[in-house]
Amino acid sequence: CEEPIAGAEEPLPLKLPHMDNYEPGTDPQGCLARATDWRYFEKDGAWFARETNTMPQWAGSCWYFLRYIDPDNQDAAWSLEADKSWMPVDLYVGGQEHAVLHLLYARFWHKVLHQLGLTAAPEPFQKLVHQGMILGADGEKMSKSRGNVVNPDDVVKEYGADALRLYEMFMGPLEATKPWQTSQVTGVVRFRNKVFNLASMRYDLSDESMDDETARILHKTMKKVTEDVENLAFNTAISALMVLVNHLSGLKTRAPPREAVEKVVLMISPFAPHVAEECWQILGHEGSIARESWVTWDEKLCIDSVVKLGVQVNGKVRGTIELAKDADETEAQELGLALESVQKFVEGKTIKKVIYVPGRILNIVAK
């Protein structure tokens, strides 16, 4: 009979048949459709078929993280020991739709499991981060009807997978909604190629000690990239790497230091793993770069001993000086007044006051 009917209350809860094979097969109704003796029944002279496709995808996706912590357990879905060792999940990353769909359902399932004593943590996730939506080039949500859908396969085919990854992370903050601009992918392609070109200088790289400027830029970059990755600020991490790579590529008086280039390759590996692996091999290393230890830095080299300071005359910037971070007011004033661009604004005037904040500002008040 094609007319649906409600099942009788008497056999509830309905006992499922024993199945030797739980594989889905080709029938969209699932494996239970193969249990014909159970599926079909006669009532009031008419034959009916039980609905077998009743389990939603949420039944699996709402607790898969629990199975992940103990995937080889043959006796239970997961053990209490594994639960206490791994749960709760540190970070949940999802889009806006997840807040009212998967996140809500997964928390509901988990709370039931918690009340049953099957998991110790009352909440499955410790932290939630909403990733922003990538819009089409026209600033609208991507859809086939608008014709603004970007196929990642096309981008990978033209520019490579690393370029796609780099651009997606370089577009802006993870949480921000941002439009896709294919024309801007070439910027990260140039960056990727610069990294490869540095590694390709394997036999021309310097094994001597780095100059102070390069060492400071390197250690500041290692610190910033590490902290930015931990904070999911991938765009600023890549930006810092670009500054370092440009510095190394622009060295005129000496070859780029091998140590610095190797650190660059290590730092770019989470963003562009394919080119990083190739560069690592070019640099003479065996084994995967994924097995290498992450970079470390010297905190002392991350602190500027010399700073650039804007020199103001009556509140307007008239020049820039470089001096020690802890230089006193007398030294700062002498350097500031020595600038030709400052002298013409104080000439013939009386200096009434000097406002000096070390490392931040020098303002000369002249009348």
Automatic annotation (TrEMBL):
Pfam families: Anticodon_1 (PF08264), tRNA-synt_1 (PF00133). CDD domains: Anticodon_Ia_Leu_BEm. GO terms for cellular component: mitochondrion. Residues 86-167 form the Aminoacyl-tRNA synthetase class Ia domain. It catalyses: tRNA(Leu) + L-leucine + ATP = L-leucyl-tRNA(Leu) + AMP + diphosphate. Belongs to the class-I aminoacyl-tRNA synthetase family. This is leucine--tRNA ligase. It comes from Octactis speculum.
